[in-house]
Every structure is written in C-alpha cells, then in structure tokens.
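Researcher: Go.
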Amino acid sequence: MKACTNLSASCRDRAFLSLAILRRCRKAALVTLDMCLSNARSESMISRRFLAAEPGVTKKSARFNIKSDNLFLAALGPNRRTSVLSLFNRRKLCGFVLLDGETFELVGNWELPGEARPFGYDFWYQPRHNVMISTEWGAPKRLANGFNPADLEAGHYGQCLHVWDWNTHKHIQTLDLGEEGAIPLEIRFLHDPAAAEGYVGCALQGTVFRFYKTQKGDWAAERVIKVPVKKVEGWILPEMSGLITDILISLDDRFLYFSNWLHGDVRQYDITDRRNPIWWVFLGGSIQNDGPVKVLEDSELDSQPSPRIVKVHKCLVVRSPQMLQLSLDGKRLYVTTSLYSAWDKQFYPELIKYGSVMMQIDVDTVKGGLRLNENFLVDFGAEPEGPALAHEVRYPGGDCTSDIWL
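Model: Structure:
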C-alpha cells in the first residue's frame, strides 16, 4: 500500500488535528490544532452557530479527511436550534458536514437533500466499491445524561446500518440489525481496498456483525460474534452485557479487536475465516471480585477477575477498557478508559474523580495472544488541569482506524 493511495493522507503532511465536541458548547463545535508535535496550538475554533446553519448537524462524531481535501464530519443528532423552516429539523434527522480542509470554513452538507437519517455516529467508505456505510448511536438529548433503558424501549437509540453511494451521495439501503444489533457504534471495513466486507460492533447486546456485498450487488449483514451476558446481583440490572464500545482491525486484516466496557476485557479474534472469527485480557470493569457486583452465572469464566495493578505506577486500574488504537506493526495495542463523561459518571464514577488512564497491551502477532504491559501507563488524572478523561488515541502518521486505501 503506497502512501499516495491513502485517501486520508491525500499525499500531504498531516498538519492538523481535529477535535469534535459532543456536548453543547457555546464556544465551538470543532477545534483544529496545528500539529507541531511538541507544541500543538489552537489554530481554528469553528463556532456552533456556523455548523448549525446546516440542518441536523449539531452533534459531531466521526471525522475523516477525504480525497477532495475536505474534512468530513458525521452528525450524531439533529440541532434543536435549527430554524423550524428546516425540513431536516422538522423530521428530526441528521446528516454529514463538509469543511474546507485548509480554511475550515463550512462547505455544506454531504448527503443529498432529504437523504439524512434519524441517527448517526460512525462511518467508513471504500471508494473502489463506491460505498460508504454509516452507523447509529442515539438521540443526543437522551444519551447526554446517561443510559436509560426506557429510552431504548421508546426508540431513542438506533439499530441500523445505512449504505450510501459514495459518488452521488445518495442513500441506497438500510440494514436493520434488529435487537441484537442495537446501538451499532464503530464500523470498520477490511483495509484491503478490494475487500467488500467489514465488521461493526454493536454495544448493547455485545455483538459483532459482519457486513458484506452480495452477489446481487446489494449489502447484507450477519451476526458473527456474541459475548454472553452475565447474570449478576448488586448492579442496576439482573444481567450485564459486555457493551462493546470500540472495534478495530489490524492492518494485515488478520486480527479483530474489541473492548467490553462493562465486563472489562479486550478481545482478539483471528478473522482469517471471515465468517467464523479468542484471546482476551481483563483490565478492569464492573465484575472485578473486589467490587459490589456478584456474578451468579457466567458461561465463559470460572471466577470473577481480580483487580489489575500496573507496576510502573503501582496504580490500581479501577476503570475499564474503552477506545483502542493499534500500532502499525500490530504489536502494541493502546487502550483508554473514558467513553463519554455522562456514561462514565453513571457506570464508573471513580473516573470522574481520578481521571482516565492509557494502557498498553503487547500483542503476539504470530500465534495470537494479549498481555498487559505492566511497565507502561499514562495517568491522565495527574494532568495539571485534570483529572482528564482521555477518550481516543491517534497516530500522527496514520493508524488502523483512520486510513483508507484505493
């Protein structure tokens, strides 16, 4: 894979880091930083009022640089302050936004008029197959204060994948994953640009779906992984799902990784058999044997995992693995622990008090296998203006979750 075929890089230096803001903020909806590596400085703050001029794009989530050198943003949900004359706002839909990659000025909506979807979150595209597929989280107003099962019952969370024509920007298909696919978050195509398939992690039921292009030319999805729920007591519900919050694929398309934010483990699957993709390592979570939760029935473990202590800081890991980033050689898997401040507060209140951490998992790329590196830890609770809730890791030179090849 040559650098000049990498659409995200566009054969140019990666000079800016974009930070999308999820919660309501008066100052900005997107911040860009000049990426002088030792001294990043604020370069541009794009006011919410400018983005609000585009219907239904208030909450930002995933973002990519695309071949046109525009910055591509996915909206999480509609902007309630948009004019009532806005068709998208009346229908409570959300879409995608384009920003100029050099000036960061608003270009407009990416999708065609009337093509926005009820929910949004992540997306991935494969130009060779003229396709983009996007996912759904939920209504920002509902999830902003934590997870309430009643909101799920009321239809405020998504369970669909949306297929788009990459060239025409037209929505062409919806894949309803059903209850097992509720809250599909992170989506990844295989890195091989000839491959017309990939995986999506569905948070609520702890499932992974494989999506693929059929012989007819349309798209389909099938569940390939399900993390068994654990029957518990001392928790908010009698059953605890894994809550898959992040998923990634190694650059050689051999290993699939995902995090179970509630159970507290990171898993590695060999997906060389694409349809039947186990190694895992526990880093924390809600079922540790020193906590209030008692596991009554578990089809995977004989006993509850013990707390993890990282030797380098003698630091007890009282949080749980969330976002993942893999080194380009596939040997180092970096893990952060903060999902979203409101959900952090609900499920892991100690995160708010002590801040999040970043850990390193050493990967056996030959035989497969995971091992926590006990000599590495970044404690964001010790930051000068902390405690900080570190969420996502990016490599300045490109990584497994942002680069797309022709």
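Model: The first strand starts at residue 16 and ends at 20.
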